[in-house]
Amino acid sequence: MQCLFVSQAKTGPVNCFSYAVVEPDTLPVLQLMKEGVRAFRAENKEELENLIALSEQLLATDSTFIFILASDKLISESQQLLANHEHLYNFNQLPWPTAKELKYSNQSAILLSTQQTIQKISSLSDRYNGKADYIVWKCPEELPDYASLYTFWNLNAQPVNFFECNYGQLRQVQELIQKLNQTDRISGCFMSGGKLINGVTINASDNYLSNTQFCFPFKEFINLKTQKNSYELIPQWILAHSSTDYMYSVIEATRIPIATGKILHLKSSGKSQYPGGNKNLFRNHGVKIHKDDTGTFHHFDGNAFYTFATDELKDSLLNITLSTRFRITKPATYHSIICQGLNFILKVHRGFLCLTIPTQADYYLSGIPIELNTWYTISLVITEGSKLKVYTNGELNDTITIPPISTGTDLFMIGNSPYQERFQGDIRDIQLWNRGLDSTDIAGLYSPQKNINFCWLVLIPVIFLSILSGIVLFRRKRQRAPVPPTAKVEKPGRMLTSKPPGHHNSLFLFGEFSLFNNTGENLMNQMSPKTQQLFLLVTLKTLLGDGITTRELNDVLWPGMHDAAAKNNRGVTIFNLRQVMSVSTGLMLDYADKHWTIKGLENYYIDFQAFRQQKEVFSANTTNLTLLNDLLDILSQPFLQSIQLEWLDSYKNNVNEEHLKWLMTVSTLPAVRQQPDVMLKIATAMFAIDEVNETALHLRINAYRNKGFEALARTSLENFKKRYRLLYNEEYSHVDF
Questions:
Q1: Which of these three, 422, 445, 468, is where a domain ends?
Q2: Does 218 fall in a domain?
Q3: Considering the entire predicted model, what is its pTM?
C-alpha cells in the first residue's frame, strides 16, 4: 500500500491528482470509482492525526490506496507530526517526482482539466513512464455525458476512476457512476444545518471515516452504521438492497445538547446531579468541601472517597465520556481518580496519567507529567471500535486503541480503587456521559484556572453598573461575598433597540450566544470555541469601556502560557476571527492606542444593550406595559446560556443579580400587580436566572390563581419540587401557598 499525503496547493507545473487542484470557493468532492480506493480530507490537526493513524493500521493489512488532502496552512503547522511518519509522501514538494521515485509502488494518477476532455493522455502518462493507474475527471459547470466518457475510455483503453465536482453536481455524477460500474454503488452525504460535515465514522470496527461524502459498492445488500460524537444522525444506518433504483441519500446530523446522556455531575459546590444514576446509591466516605483563592472543591485527605452506582451504562464501554478537573497536593506512587471495580481505573502513577483495565498493562495517557499543586482538566472519550481519545486541558493529546472494557455491576469509586490507591488532593468536578463528546464539547468543559488581575476586578463591577447587596441567586443554599460598589461608566454610543427583521445584523447574549450578519447567517457556527471567547471578551470590553489590552487578553484566554506561545495562539485566533467577521458583518477587530476593540457594533441590535437602554426609558414611565413586555421577552432566556467559562462567572453573577433585583422591584409596581399575564412573564424571567427562586414560585402560583387556573398553580408547585429535589437531593418542605 502507498499512502500519499496531498496538499491543496494550486501552484506547480503539473495538474495531477496527487496535486489536487482546487478552486478556492468550491468544495471538491472525490467520488470513488474503484473498490479499494479511499480519499479523505483533513480540516484540522486532530483529523490529520486520526487519518495518519488509520493509514498506519491499514498499511499492514490492506491494499487500499489512500489520499489525504490538507491545506498548506495545516501542512506547515504539522511538520513535526509528518516527519515522524515515513509512509507519507508530500506531493507539495517540488520538483515533481517520477514514478520510480515514488515510495513503495509506482502507482500514479492523472487529473483531466476541463480542456482535456476527449483526447488521449499519452503525453501526460509518459511522465509516469506509462499508463496512469487512476484517471480523475475535473468536472466543469456542465457534466460530461456517458457517450463522452465512453469515447475517452475507447481512446485510452482506460476508464475514468474519479470525478472531482461541486456539491450541486453530486446527484448527476451518481448517475454517471452507476453507468460506468458493473457493481451497484450506494452513495450520499452528511449534512448539518444546511452544510456538509465530515468526521462521521461508518462501521467503526472497519475503520471507515467519511469526509462529508460516502460511496460504497455492493452486490445484494449493504448495512452500515454511522456515528459522530456529539451528533444525532438520522437515519443512523446506510441501507440498500439490489432492488433499489436510485441510491443517493442525505443523512442529517443534529448537534446533541451537552446535558443529554449525562449520568453524573459532581460539582465543585458539593451539590451533585444524577440525571442518569441512582442518588440513593451515592455515598460520601469522609470527603470535605474546601475553598481557597481558586474556588471551591472536594478535598481528599488520603482516606476519604465517594462511591456511586448507575445502570445507565451498557455492558461494555463502547461510547462514554469522562471528564474531571483535579490537582494532586501530596506525593504518592498511586492516586486513583475514578474507577469501576477492576473494570477500569483512571489514576496517576508515578506522576503520569494512566488507565488500568483487566489482564492488560497500564496504558499511559498523554505523556504529560502531572505536577503537584497544578490543576488539570482530563477528558477521556471512548467510542465504538475501542478508540480512546485523551484530552488535556481541552486539547487532544493522545489517541490509542484499547481492548473492549466491560462495565459489570461494581460500584464506581471516586478517590479510591480496589487496590486502596487513595487519592490525595482536590477534585473540582467529575462528569460522566453514556455517549462520546467531540472536540468542541470537550473544549467547552475546560476553563483555565487563574488569578484575576486588578484590571478585571475593577472593570467587572464597572461593566454592569448596579450591584446587589442583599439578593442572592440561591439564598437557601449559599451566600456570595459582597460585591464592591461600582462607578458608572459612559457607554460608547447608543445601540439599536429594536430587532431587525430576520435577525439581520444582530448580536444575542441572552439564550444562545449568536451573531447574525446582514444576510441573516449565524456566524457562531463558523467560530471555534476559542474564537468565540475572543469575540465575546473584546465585545464586552468594547460595549462598556475602551477595549482590552494585549496583556489582558493573554491573562484571560491564555493564562500561564509563555509569551511566545501566547503570541502565536493569539495571532492564530485573531486571524480566524477576522476571517469570520469579513463575511458581510460590517464589523472589524481593531487595534489602536494599545487596545483591541470591535468596530461597527453601533449598527447592530444587541439584546444586552437594548435591555439596558430600554430599562432607562421604562423607569421614567412605569405604566408602559408594552415596553415592559419587550424587556421581559429579553430576560426570558438565561444570560450567555450555553457558555460556561470560569472567567465569565463573575460577569454572569453580577448581571443575574442586577436583573433579579430589577424584576423583584418591578413585581411590586401597582400597575404591574394588576396584570397576571405580566406577573407570569416576570416569574419566567426569574426562573431563567434561578430555577429554584421562591419569589418566582409565589408570583407564578398567585398569577395562575388570579386567572382561575388552580390546576396550573398546583402543577407549577410540583414542577418546582422536582427541580429542587434534583438540584439539592432533598425535598422542598415549604408548601404554604
A1: 445
A2: no
A3: 0.47
